[in-house]
Amino acid sequence: MIGRARRPLMAFVMVLSYSRQIFLRFFLDARMESFLRGHVGAFTAWNGCPRVLLYDNLKSAVLERQGDAIRFHPTLIAFAAHYRYDPRPVAVARGNEKAEAWCRGLAADRRCPGQDTVSVREAFAAEAPRLLALPDNPYPLIERVAVKAGKTPYVRFDLNDYSIPHTKVQRLLTVLADPNVVRIVDGAQVLACHRRSYDKGAQIEDAGHVQALVQHKRAARRHRGTDHLAKAAPESQTLLLRAAERGDNLGTVTAALLRLLERYGAAELDAAIREAIERGVPHPNAVRLALDHRRELRDQPPPVAVILPEHVKVRDAHVQPHRLEPYDQLKEQGDE
Prior knowledge:
The protein is α+β, with helices and mostly antiparallel strands. Helices cover 38% and strands 21% of the residues.
């Protein structure tokens, strides 16, 4: 178990035929990328590559087998070409050719089969110079998976959700992953780079993605308020422009004007904004003073804000009247 995820533990084993030198590494899956990473790990540990590798009926290696005729996986063929070795099949169920037979005890210090006078370690020392030299660049072993981003700025890969920029939702993207890092790309553009998680149901987030989404939502709310003000009180656009020139917070100014709009109405607010601009004070406080002054001239009481529930069903809830007869019956029973 890793976190909430139950993952298989897979062992990759490679054995050199002459010295019986063993390489062992564990992986959390049986994907082709992990299978080939095992090869690279063995080649690196031995500082060389065998000239011939024998494979049994592993699904990662053999796609189809009919008697002695087999079809290797094309990715394995490309990998073998990169390292210049010859992949060959072995007979099915040949246990002496399987690495598991050599994975017990101190493998390097045991007697070398067929050469009782030397150990596996000594036999490998003699075999190592005959291995093929490794290429300058290792074979690229990257998991490439196409993913669909939905309405939320996350993509699902290997049981977990990884964040992406909110501008890249609802499109087809590509995940490029290795054992440690998950990269999410859109064509040649790298959108995100995350530490890989082997948990289940985890959300791996980039703080920059979250902050950009928060700012986008705040801007969207401010724009909605600005549009509402522009339709109800056109003079508000001039006031906001002057406020921006003064360096005022436009979000705060917009929110204050919206509250005044709800309390005094569109016509009064537009007239008060015009008066504040003419006096050279483009600020909600000046607008509020103008509204109070106009109200006092009309000898009207201050408006009272009525706070109602946001939800229409709650605000307009229908109350079902109850019949009063049951209460009369209860009263009669009490008198008795």
